């Protein structure tokens, strides 16, 4: 909670934290109108799926070049320019007059989204290094807060009755607050890193962190997509509780991120990842009990465990010896997005061919692997 107070009391920390909020406000506002876009363009579910794939394609297309751009122009400027770009691109999918322009618009929106994601995480990493202050986890809490603010936007749908106008209001909020505060970070450049020649020894810790990111974000994506169905079909929960798993998961995820920095400062990044994975493991066992209320509690514990892991991975990835912080962050982000996007369909295939319960057993296994990976990372740090 100390890092939350730090952000709220000091513009130097609030400025980058608001970028995290901004990203999810715009993404969440677009997500609200996906059903309306489908209806407006008269496309079916498979065509919509392909269009959304172009959003993911845009995210992945920017990852290989984002670090180079950030290093060239400076992480502060890159973050501010990224905010301007996402304010421009956020409205494009809602303006698309046909299916093909929708795919193009989503590609651009995805690319700007991915760029801001890498820039803002690199920015927080650099400020933490300069100030010896931990606030990465709380900054990710502000990202979750952006999703909450976007969700509250559903109350504007009936009032405004215009998706484009709704998005313009969201963009205006994002732009005005960022415009007031961007001077607090625009001058920041990444500290020079003494680079080493590429070697497997240098890359191995980053590879381990990337695999952890893949598994944790994969688990997050699976819970977003499958928790409701699990409660309905496996726990035989009443209809009013089908969304409770995801709701509790989201609440504990946001809360945990506001508490994570102070714990990390006391015990270190690797130990907090281990601690988070242990909580998630207990959560998965509760979910696999199939008892409705115990399963809902389990989803909450998984959210609490996951909440502290991803911010720490960005912190670790941005501080790998011999690698630019932007390159480390880009690798972690890319691995995480890959997991978030690919895990749900893979687990869906498992659910179809075997059972949904088996899918969650696999997720439990992934959390155990995350715990085991912390021992590898701990040994490398000791050396």
Question: How would you sum up this structure, described in words?
Answer:
With about 375 residues, this protein is mainly α. It folds into 2 domains: about 1-185, Up-down Bundle (Growth Hormone, Chain: A); about 200-380, Growth Hormone, Chain: A (Up-down Bundle). About 85% of the residues lie in helices and about 0% in strands. The chain has 17 helices and no strands. It has helices at about 1-10, 10-30, 35-40, 45-75, 75-90, 90-95, 100-130, 135-150, 155-160, 165-180, 200-235, 245-265, 270-290, 290-305, 310-315, 325-355, 355-380. Helix 1 (about 1-10) crosses helix 2 and helix 11 packs antiparallel against helix 12 (about 245-265). The chain is globular. The model has no long low-confidence stretch (mean pLDDT about 85).
Structure in a nutshell:
By secondary structure, the chain is mainly α. The chain has helices spanning 2-9, 11-32, 34-41, 45-73, 75-89, 92-95, 99-131, 136-152, 154-160, 163-181, 200-233, 244-267, 269-288, 292-307, 309-317, 325-353, 356-382. The chain folds into 2 domains: 2-184, Up-down Bundle (Growth Hormone, Chain: A); 200-382, Up-down Bundle (Growth Hormone, Chain: A), CATH 1.20.1250.20.
**Cα gyration radius (Å):** 20 Å
Approximately what portion of the residues adopt beta-strand conformation? under 5%
Helix fraction bin? over 70%
Number of helices: 17
Q: Determine the CATH topology of the largest domain.
A: Growth Hormone, Chain: A
Protein topology:
Elements: H1 2-9, H2 11-32, H3 34-41, H4 45-73, H5 75-89, H6 92-95, H7 99-131, H8 136-152, H9 154-160, H10 163-181, H11 200-233, H12 244-267, H13 269-288, H14 292-307, H15 309-317, H16 325-353, H17 356-382
Helix pairs in contact: 1-2, 2-5, 2-7, 2-8, 2-10, 4-5, 4-7, 4-16, 5-7, 5-10, 7-16, 8-12, 8-15, 11-12, 11-14, 11-15, 11-16, 11-17, 12-13, 12-14, 13-14, 13-15, 13-17, 15-16, 16-17
């Amino acid at each position: 909670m100390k890092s939350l107070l730090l952000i709220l009391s000091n513009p130097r920390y609030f400025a980058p934290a608001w970028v995290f909020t901004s990203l999810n406000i715009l993404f969440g506002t677009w997500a609200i109108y996906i059903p309306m876009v489908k209806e407006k363009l008269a496309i079916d579910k498979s065509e919509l799926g392909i269009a959304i794939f172009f959003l993911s394609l845009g995210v992945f297309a920017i990852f290989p070049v984002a670090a180079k751009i950030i290093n060239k122009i400076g992480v502060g400027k890159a973050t501010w320019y990224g905010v301007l770009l996402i304010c421009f691109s956020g409205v494009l999918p809602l303006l698309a007059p046909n299916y093909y322009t929708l795919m193009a618009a989503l590609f651009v929106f995805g690319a700007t989204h991915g760029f801001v994601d890498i820039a803002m995480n690199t920015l927080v990493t650099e400020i933490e290094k300069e100030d010896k202050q931990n606030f990465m986890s709380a900054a990710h809490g502000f990202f979750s807060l952006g999703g909450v603010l976007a969700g509250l936007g559903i109350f504007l749908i009936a009032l405004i009755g215009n998706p484009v106008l709704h998005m313009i209001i969201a963009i205006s909020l994002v732009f005005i607050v960022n415009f007031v505060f961007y001077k607090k970070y625009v001058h920041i450049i990444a500290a020079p890193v003494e680079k080493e020649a590429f070697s497997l020894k240098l890359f191995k810790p980053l590879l381990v962190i990337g695999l952890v990111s893949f598994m944790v974000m994969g688990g997050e994506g699976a819970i977003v997509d499958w928790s409701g169905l699990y409660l309905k079909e496996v726990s035989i929960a009443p209809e009013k509780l089908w969304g409770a798993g995801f709701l509790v998961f989201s609440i504990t995820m946001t809360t945990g991120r506001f508490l994570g920095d102070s714990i990390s400062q006391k015990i270190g990044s690797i130990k907090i990842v281990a601690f988070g994975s242990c909580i998630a493991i207990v959560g998965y066992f509760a979910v696999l009990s199939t008892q409705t209320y115990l399963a809902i509690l389990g989803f909450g514990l998984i959210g609490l465990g996951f909440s502290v892991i991803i911010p720490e991975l960005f912190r670790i990835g941005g501080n790998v010896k011999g690698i630019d912080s932007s390159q480390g962050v880009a690798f972690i982000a890319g691995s995480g997005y890959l997991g978030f996007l690919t895990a749900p369909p893979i687990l869906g295939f498992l659910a179809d061919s075997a059972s949904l319960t088996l899918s969650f057993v696999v997720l439990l296994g992934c959390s155990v692997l995350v715990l085991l990976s912390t021992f590898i990372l701990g040994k490398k740090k000791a050396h």
